[in-house]
Amino acid sequence: MVYAIVRAGGRQEKVSVGSELLIDRVGGGTPAAGTALQLAPLLLVDGTTVTSDAAALAGVTVTAEVVDEVKGPKITILRYKNKTGYRKRQGHRQKHTRVRITAIDS
């Protein structure tokens, strides 16, 4: 079993070939479905061999393909100040990119 720990969207994710994950929105605009991405590996596990050396990981590429763009759950923000009548309600939905891991090449 080959898997890798990659840095994606400010977080670390455990990925293997064929797995799908949600990362923060990629790029400034909407990426087209089928666009290839390179993710930075932090750790590579190949059976019993564990590679965490930065020099050895420089030759490792983790390739992902954009599946689509989705929105996260709605969160509600409410600001309130006591005794003044100040109330402010705001909502937010974070945009995510769903990617599928296509290859882990070492």
Automatic annotation (TrEMBL):
Keyword rRNA-binding: yes
Pfam families reported for this sequence: Ribosomal_L21p
GO biological process: translation
Composition bias, Basic residues: 86-99
Disordered: annotated span: 86-106
GO cellular component terms, A-Z: cytoplasm; ribonucleoprotein complex; ribosome
Keyword Metal-binding: no
SUPFAM superfamilies, A to Z: L21p-like
Stored InterPro entries: bL21-like, bL21-like_sf, Ribosomal_bL21, Ribosomal_bL21_CS
Keyword terms: Ribonucleoprotein, Ribosomal protein, RNA-binding, rRNA-binding
Subunit-level organization: Part of the 50S ribosomal subunit. Contacts protein L20.
UniProt xrefs under HAMAP family: Ribosomal_bL21
Function of the molecule: This protein binds to 23S rRNA in the presence of protein L20.
Sequence similarity: Belongs to the bacterial ribosomal protein bL21 family.
Name of protein: Large ribosomal subunit protein bL21
Lineage: Bacteria, Bacillati, Actinomycetota, Actinomycetes, Kineosporiales
